[in-house]
Design a protein that fits this description.
Elements lengths: L2 E10 L2 E11 L4 E5 L6 H8 L7 E6 L2 E2 L8 E4 L11 H11 L4 H14 L15 H13 L5 E5 L7 H16 L3 E5 L3 H7 L2 E6 L2 E7 H8 L2 E7 L12 E6 L3 E6 L2 H11 L5 E7 L3 H9 L5
Parallel strand pairs: 3-8, 3-9, 6-7, 7-8
Antiparallel strand pairs: 1-2, 1-4, 4-5, 9-10, 11-13, 11-14, 12-13
Helix pairs in contact: 2-3
């Protein structure tokens, strides 16, 4: 069943933040939400959470409307982190878990497991304001997951983290998915979505411009990337028929071509010109697709 949005629209006065969005997010799956700032991602999340009412359309989880009675099933990591700076980590997490209906001793046991996992056991009795930004973010993450939600919404979970902490948080997210949670996350970082999500939606100005499975989106895009490293000049390939984009690199050239058959023609063209170190046809990246669909309005 999972999460279902049907013809969801949200207006603030004259401004339409989300326009006729329909999505089905299968249970136990990771779903990526992409879009520039102002595309409508956070507004969509707030409607899913029941923090905002949609102007039109319906949002359901397992066929039932989402409201306060379902709040114990949902976890949320907001983009603007919202912990109480003066509270101790332990009191903060237990308070939030109890709001979600979890007994205190269970919440404490779960908190300690997470602190150990994130290698920050010594922060249990520290005030939030004493922690570094990265560690505050780990605590915020624990707050979102301590009550073992079935649906987890992560708004820019990796922003502002160093690479080591990004990896640690990614592993945590993947383990939650393996344990049966449905996870929806937004990110500016295409590679995180590409690495972790089976399905995704790209929003622009409140409208979904691309949505579906990552494999199909790449297949439907049609164009491929061709990387060539050679000991001779490849400059002339920029004007080769079927080449859409080109970029010279230190080792050679990167081309975006209309299809595999163009790559074959290019190979025939250059095969006798000298030594070719690398000739690789690659799938389009999510970044290529994003730029083409959304244009350079992406910051």
């Amino acid at each position: 069943m999972g999460l279902k949005l049907e013809h969801v629209t949200k207006r603030f006065g004259q401004f339409t933040a989300v326009n006729d969005l329909s999505l089905t997010i299968p249970e136990k799956e990771m779903f990526g939400f992409l879009g520039a700032n102002g595309a409508g991602k956070t507004t969509t999340f707030r409607m899913i959470l029941g923090l905002l009412d949609s102007t039109e359309g319906t949002i359901t989880w397992d066929g039932k409307p989402i409201n306060y009675s379902t709040s114990h099933l949902v976890g949320y990591l907001p983009e603007e982190r919202g912990l109480y700076p003066k509270l101790k980590v332990r009191d903060q997490i237990i308070y939030l878990a109890r709001l979600r209906g979890m007994p205190k001793n269970e919440a404490l046991a779960e908190l300690r497991l997470w602190l150990e996992r994130f290698k920050i056991q010594e922060y249990e009795n520290k005030r939030v304001e004493e922690l570094s930004k990265g560690n505050q973010q780990k605590i915020q993450f624990i707050a979102a997951v301590v009550h073992k939600p079935k649906l987890l919404i992560l708004d820019e979970p990796f922003s502002g983290l160093d690479p080591v902490n990004v990896e640690m948080l990614k592993e945590a997210v993947l383990s939650l998915k393996e344990n049966g949670a449905t996870i929806v996350f937004s990110s500016h970082r295409m590679e995180h979505v590409e690495e972790m999500c089976e399905h995704l939606c790209i929003m622009q100005k409140g409208i979904p411009v691309v949505s579906g499975s990552l494999k199909e989106i790449k297949r439907d895009f049609g164009k491929k990337n061709l990387v060539i490293h050679a000991d001779f000049s490849l400059d002339s390939l920029k004007a080769f028929p079927g080449v859409v984009k080109s970029k010279l690199t230190m080792e050679g050239i990167q081309l975006q071509v209309e299809g595999e058959e163009i790559a074959e023609k290019i190979l025939k063209e250059i095969v006798n010109s000298g030594f070719i170190r690398r000739f690789a046809l690659e799938e389009p990246s999510l970044n290529d697709i994003f730029i083409e669909k959304v244009g350079n309005s992406y910051e």
